[in-house]
């Protein structure tokens, strides 16, 4: 019960896209990124099985310094190894989400070799984030711009506060997404909507986000401040609808959906069979059978 021997090691063993076989050295780019300090990525693993990952660099509207990129990779590794985990909420500190790459680091790394390596590093990390065996939610308050917008697409779901904006501002910067955000956006909203959002650098508010299927919900505003739940509390209660139950079963749910999303049908079917085998006859299954449960 738990360890899954699947026929698709790419999803569950090494979720990365680039490795030494692509001439990519993770350690080499890490060293370069660490030359750009500032901010942090904070991880709080809770007894509920829901972790909170906070992008924390408020003086720069939570822009990603190089050190934060390295920190994110380390926190994703910790989440990959979290046996009791079921879900993760990604939020920004101080009521705003993330304003993308730290433009000071971008200016200093403007040769295209380093830019490409940074992009490969972030693609690896964000792909691993999306492939975690945890149900993930981006809690968007304030602005999610550029790489911040890309980060929201590396979660299974997005919840938006009213007044918040997701904007792929890349075109205004003479860029396109490079952290995997374009590929994921197409999967989420379809190629026509993706073309509109990228080509027009459209400001997606919560209403438009829900309309095109980018956002999965809008946080409530309670005018009675004493009773009002914070965005994080609302996101935790929204996510808990899907994380009730034992961790191995929730992880298995995420894995079957992930394989269906990413693999060919025949590979996905084989993987689903392996994952099924990992929960069949497990404690939750035996307990449910013994209790003759009715699903009324
Ligand atoms: C992967 C590709 C990318 O991600 S490229 C980066 C894309 N992002 C951007 O271009 C964001 C640029 N920033 C903005 O548009 C505005 O700062 C936003 C986020 C809308 C906030 O506006 P506003 O509320 O008026 O605050 P502000 O501009 O005074 O900013 C406060 C301090 O934060 C800084 N800041 C903001 N974003 C970044 C960033 N991406 N990199 C580095 N610093 C950033 C501002 O420069 C400002 O700093 P300071 O107070 O002037 O020292």
Automatic annotation (TrEMBL):
GO terms for biological process: fatty acid beta-oxidation. CDD domains: crotonase-like (cd06558). Keywords: Cytoplasm, Lyase. It is found in: Cytoplasm, Cytosol. It comes from the Eukaryota. Its main location: cytoplasm. GO terms for molecular function: methyl/ethyl malonyl-CoA decarboxylase activity. It catalyses: (2R)-ethylmalonyl-CoA + H(+) = butanoyl-CoA + CO2; (2S)-ethylmalonyl-CoA + H(+) = butanoyl-CoA + CO2; (S)-methylmalonyl-CoA + H(+) = propanoyl-CoA + CO2. InterPro entries: ClpP/crotonase-like_dom_sf, Enoyl-CoA_hyd/isom_CS, Enoyl-CoA_hydra/iso. Its EC number is 4.1.1.94. GO terms for cellular component: cytosol. PANTHER family: ENOYL-COA HYDRATASE-RELATED, ETHYLMALONYL-COA DECARBOXYLASE. Belongs to the enoyl-CoA hydratase/isomerase family. Decarboxylates ethylmalonyl-CoA, a potentially toxic metabolite, to form butyryl-CoA, suggesting it might be involved in metabolite proofreading. Acts preferentially on (S)-ethylmalonyl-CoA but also has some activity on the (R)-isomer. Also has methylmalonyl-CoA decarboxylase activity at lower level. This is Ethylmalonyl-CoA decarboxylase. It comes from Oryzias sinensis.
